[in-house]
Structure prediction request, 662 residues.
Amino acid sequence: MKAIKSKQLRLLAAIMILGLASGCSSTFEPWVKPYERDNLADPIMSMNRNPVSMSYTNHAYQAREGARGAEGGAGGGCGCN
Amino acid sequence: MPLFVKNFHHKTNTRYCHVIALALVSFAVLFTSINTFAGDAKGPAPDFTLASKDGGNVRLQEQLGNVVLINFWASWCAPCREELPYLEGLQQEYADLGFTILAVNVDEDPSKADILLNDIPVSFPVLFDVNDDVSKLYDVQAMPTTVIVDRDGNQRLLHHGYKSGDEVKYKQAVKALLRE
Amino acid sequence: MGQEAVVAATKQKLPSPPGTVRRLIIRLIIACIILGLLTWQAFAAVLPQDRSDAMYHSYQGGGMSIDGPSILLRKKIGNHVSVSANYYVDTISGASIDVLATASPYAEERTENSVGVDFLHNKTLMSLNYTTSSENDFEAESIHFGVSQDFFGDLTTLTLGYSKGNDEVGKTGDDSFLELAERQNYQFGITQVITKNMILGLSVENISDQGYLNNPYRSVRFLDASSARGYRFETEVYPNTRRSNAASVTANYYLPYRASVYGEAKVFSDSWGIQANTFKLGYIHTFGEDWIVELRARQYQQDKADFYQDLYSRSAEFNFRARDKEMSTFNNLSLGLSVTYEFQFSAANFFKKSTVNLDFDRVNFDYDDFRNVLAVETPVGEEPLYQFSANITRLYVSIFY
Prediction:
């Protein structure tokens, strides 16, 4: 039990250090610049171009299959604002 | 064998307090995080020359004596679409007082600029930064980005992004710089 | 007397396993810690696009005919809030093989309503969603909370989500039947921009349910020499807890002539012994400015639950017994086509764009250990393995403003 607790604490500490480190380097240079995102902003690159249709399709499969979860995604896009 | 089999262990009181303390720190960080989106960038605005939509080239140095608003935009950027009519309004209002807007389009395909310009005609020069040279020069970190340059060619305002209401900030800055 | 039983049943609350609340709070705190630290690097997040969709959906196959509307409305309010509402109806008729084995075709209707609000605060996008589902023998409600954050120059998006649902399971023809189930989902997702043309995603979800987890209409069959058919039916008995984990990896790649290709691979495993994986591959092609065509294939494969058996040798042979084909070993393959036509309006208009869409998928299910009991001519236990095909159609109009 003690071993698991300290493992979790160590993981938390690692995340904290990572987070603080990322905070310190406020000049992170993205390798895809905001003005290079035309293709990523195109709706055909979106994971969820038609949410109503996608959620229905996921439901149709989920109702007939044993598996569930990990559907859907976000991100990419134009990153504007 | 099932994946990710977890064993849940009850946490002791001290561990709980520990986590609560971390939680308080995280809430503090979450809600007080500072993000500068409008800064006062000092120093001269880097000079550039770009091809204009109306033919010919436009050079920033030639605008010395005027207040210049450089706006980096693209056809695929929704906030840029919202911003364009306000920029046109600003141009019309202050053009006679020595103010011009240079709208730098960063689309890889310059003809895409017409997608917006056909619907929102503008009276200021639209420049094409096809190779992203000027965007790199100005270290554009968000789309759109607005840089306001004073009559001496110095950068006075740097604004990342656009949200409804930001046009008021531009207007205030331009008015102040025109009075100098 | 029946009324008292119903009242007692509704008041009865299923006990949560010890430490649930604490576990939940700790997970939420950990989520906040991670987000709190990473907001130091925060840049953008955007509210979802304003849109309305009106869809007709249809599922035809396996003896079932299910169709109905789905309507979505979404609108931004100011710069920070977006609200949405969804109305969905399933009109169900026919009978699947499970029903035909023990009963007769039926008709019913299910309505699902959902409202949501998204809130953009200091570059963090928070979402809250409430959904209710209602039919004559089943009521469910669930609430979902999600947080999404872009960082590292908007190249990375981290999403955390939590859902809680409560079901009330009833049974037509048995007014005293009322069972409860509850469910909690924990979701973690990360999407990463790799190049100007490629996005990768990872999604992980842990779901735990407890309560009455089977379908009250499903039965198992066991050998019984004294019966005319050679077997009898009795009600399924499922464990009253279930824990599952799913993880998926997705990739999107942009092709220079304005097309894209995407793929997804997902693995699933749960405490009932079900192991499954899903593979998807799709290609999206555009013709001019206005036409978008998509071709896709999806393959799903599943291993049966530990307590699933098509035919038991005697009544109550094991503590847990299932014959729902959803719990069996099977695979399915679907091929799909979508066509979209876009009407582009002026950017200065209130209505910016409108699309007309038709999505169609044909799916074929092939069972390895679920037999078609309607084949009465064959000996018991040697009936042909079941298979069926279905057409899933979605016809919808979307408008963007």
Summary: Chain B touches chain C through 33 residues (CB under 8 Å). Chain B has one domain: 38-179. Residues 38-179 of chain B form a domain with the Glutaredoxin fold (CATH 3.40.30.10). Confidence is low (pLDDT under 50) at residues 1-11, 31-38 of chain B.
